[in-house]
Design brief:
The protein is an alpha+beta fold. Helix content is 42%, strand content 11%.
């Protein structure tokens, strides 16, 4: 619809881009005023959108000879179309960055009530600072079927089905155009190819483009993200261009599926598999160790529940004290007492007899550790009973 001239702003001493309406459109007189008015309204709306990935609109004016013109910031760099023609398709990382930038920029414009209506590789400028969307504020011809010399004005290769059939534009139609553009950026081929505008429009309305993830060595989620944005029904597309851009970028960030992996890729996969195997071995070992600990604890608990047990006596020796002493006080050597005095003592009758009768009493009365019963140890005094 227009042509762009590189100009110089003498006031601010900077380069600018001036866009003018083409003088060969031969629009009917009744359509020109409405078109100019829509351009003014959308130019004012575009001026309210501030985003680093949108070409800024500086000014708008009218010239007696040239008519309505718009003044944009000058962005140096090739368009996406030029980049694809000279260097081929974009890689996953560059395409993911482009998807995030453009998705966020379009969602910002939509929130301000501005629709682009003409997203395509020609309108995307690749600058060192990032991609820039151009042509905001330029209205499309009100009647999408406006013809010139028997053909459609321009090609609808990136237009949404509803935009072609009924001239209905929305944030979802911009999303469709963005998806068709990114499809071409990744594959190097148009989603809806064709030389005839009518044939292309028919394909957009009735056909689905072929998948590209397998041929490009990308994760299948790339196709899923693209085809949702390219759905014929606007209601089934992503909620916003930002959602679409982020989803596609995440899919592109997944490990690429390559038929011939490089040596670093193979080493990474072997390392991952080795880590998984070590993890499984450690898990099994931990399980077995836990089972052993639980078994030992259960065995010890059962042994205690069964009550006192007698330890086997060494050969030629008397049995040791029962293990029940763990719950009582440990046994101690009793001092030897005078049998005569014990018989006279009132506590002797009250003392219960130990198992084994007098023989056990006699053993208990023997001196411990070979202690003498007649002479006290150094520093000790005899007790009242004459024992130690």
């Amino acid at each position: 619809m227009g042509r762009v001239l590189l100009a110089r702003d003498p006031v601010l001493d900077r380069n600018v881009a001036i866009k003018l309406l083409r003088d060969d459109l031969k629009l009917p007189p009744e359509q020109l005023p409405s078109l100019l008015e829509r351009m003014r309204q959308e130019a004012r709306a575009s001026a309210r959108v501030v985003h680093p990935n949108i070409v800024a609109l500086h000014d708008m004016g009218e010239d007696p000879e040239l008519g309505l013109f718009l003044v944009f910031e000058y962005v140096e760099g090739p368009t996406l179309k030029e980049r694809l023609q000279t260097r081929g398709s974009l890689g996953p990382e560059a395409a993911g960055k482009l998807a995030r930038e453009l998705g966020d920029a379009l969602t910002t414009a939509h929130a301000a009530g501005v629709l682009h209506r003409d997203i395509k590789p020609e309108n995307l400028i690749l600058n060192r600072a990032g991609a820039k969307i151009a042509d905001f504020g330029i209205a499309r011809v009100p009647d999408s079927t406006l013809t010139r010399d028997g053909g459609l004005l321009g090609t609808p290769a990136y237009s949404a089905p509803e935009a072609i059939s009924s001239g209905t534009f929305s944030p979802q139609s911009d999303q469709f155009s963005l998806a068709a553009t990114l499809y071409e950026a990744l594959s190097g081929k148009r989603a809806f190819p064709g030389q005839d505008a009518i044939a292309v429009a028919t394909r957009i309305a009735t056909e689905h483009p072929p998948t590209i993830a397998g041929a490009c060595g990308l994760d299948p989620h790339v196709d899923a993200a693209l085809f949702r944005a390219l759905d014929k029904d606007p209601r089934k597309r992503w909620p916003s261009c930002d959602d679409f851009g982020r989803a596609l970028a995440e899919a592109l960030a997944l490990s690429p599926r390559s038929r011939m992996p490089t040596l670093p890729d193979r080493q990474r996969r072997e390392l991952e598999h080795g880590t998984e195997r070590r993890g499984r071995v450690l898990a099994v070992g931990g399980f077995l160790a836990g089972a052993v600990v639980i078994g030992l604890a259960a065995f010890a608990s059962g042994a205690l529940d069964r009550g006192p047990a007698t330890a086997p006596a060494p050969s030629g020796e008397e049995p040791n004290e029962p293990l029940g002493f763990l719950a009582e006080r440990p046994p101690s050597a009793a001092p030897k007492r005078d049998p005569g005095r014990e018989a006279d003592s009132p506590s002797a009758a009250a003392r219960p007899a130990a198992d084994g009768g007098a023989e056990e009493d006699a053993k208990a009365a023997e001196p411990a550790d070979g202690a003498s019963t007649t002479e006290p140890r150094p520093g000790e005094a005899p007790d009242a009973a004459g024992g130690i």
